[in-house]
Amino acid sequence: MVDRLPSGLTAGVAVAASSANLGPGFDSLGLALGLYDEVFVETADSGLVVQVEGEGAGQVPLTSDHLVIQGIRRALNELGLDVPGLVVRCRNAIPHQRGLGSSASAVVAGLAAVNGLVAQLDRPVLSEARLVQLASEFEGHPDNAAAAVMGGAVVSWTASTTDGQPEYSAAPLRLHPDIHLFPAIPELRSSTAETRMLLPDQVSHSDARFNLSRAALLVVALAERPDLLLVATEDVLHQPQRAAAQPESAQLLQLLRQNGIAAVLSGAGPAVIALSTAAELPAEVRESPEARAFTMTEMQVGDGVRWNSGVVVPG
């Protein structure tokens, strides 16, 4: 039997942007960034109202196709619940189609909003592990989703259950306090689905071995040895293959690394993220022609998704 939530319940969610891969950790390593979307949800007697301001306004669907709504519906189904109507207001700060995990964040926001709603009825909420699983099912890999749910740096992986379905998991990774994050965000947009098509179905044994060594080293560099970040962020499996489609990003990436700064494509790009033990990037990098197409500022590590019950929904 499916229970219906009463009208008048409200919840608010804040969910961080994320950077996936971090160079060699393809579909496995992720990092939450201190840039947040806010979502406010209220149950209603009927209908669906979706409002969006900020990033994506006028571009994303205001229907049940909206990813926040899909996340809400998935969480309700998971908990055996339904709702006759919804009012959803999104205040978006995470740029869309830049490689900063906006899609994963939207899904996580919808899932977590349901936790905020049902908590008011003294019902069980979705656990962190379950949030990771459900959000990752939308993405097909857990790196962005896990970072958005858990915050900080994460190592994620996929296993198969006895019925052959993917099981997504993640573990937190301590980020060394000396590491500063400098995302470089362009106006240019890119589709993750399209850039994935640039990747070959098979890679050589030597390339696989190379990335395995760098991914293992990157875990050490992020947690204990930031002096190893430059070599640890080397990659041969996906960034070179995407370079031709994102020449500005490839040029900035090359410039940063030539200046001894560990820089990687953020997710599928076109954003780039630099990881440095210096408090600021060199002036010759910030003022270079390659950097002019990007907004480059230091950003804190993002927190895990936060949900609150009974908030005042803005008009």
TrEMBL record:
Subcellular location: Cytoplasm
Record has Amino-acid biosynthesis as a keyword: yes
Positions bound to ATP: P95, H96, Q97, R98, G99, L100, G101, S102, S103, A104, S105
Location of the GHMP kinase N-terminal domain: 67-152
SUPFAM superfamilies: GHMP Kinase, C-terminal domain, Ribosomal protein S5 domain 2-like
Catalysed conversion reaction: L-homoserine + ATP = O-phospho-L-homoserine + ADP + H(+)
InterPro entries referenced in this protein's UniProt entry, alphabetically: GHMP_kinase_C_dom, GHMP_kinase_C_sf, GHMP_kinase_N_dom, Homoserine_kinase, Ribosomal_Su5_D2-typ_SF, Ribsml_uS5_D2-typ_fold_subgr
One annotated GO molecular function: homoserine kinase activity
Membership in a protein family: Belongs to the GHMP kinase family. Homoserine kinase subfamily.
NCBIfam families hit by this protein: thrB
Stated name of the protein: Homoserine kinase
Protein's organism: [Mycobacterium] zoologicum
Lineage: Bacteria, Bacillati, Actinomycetota, Actinomycetes, Mycobacteriales
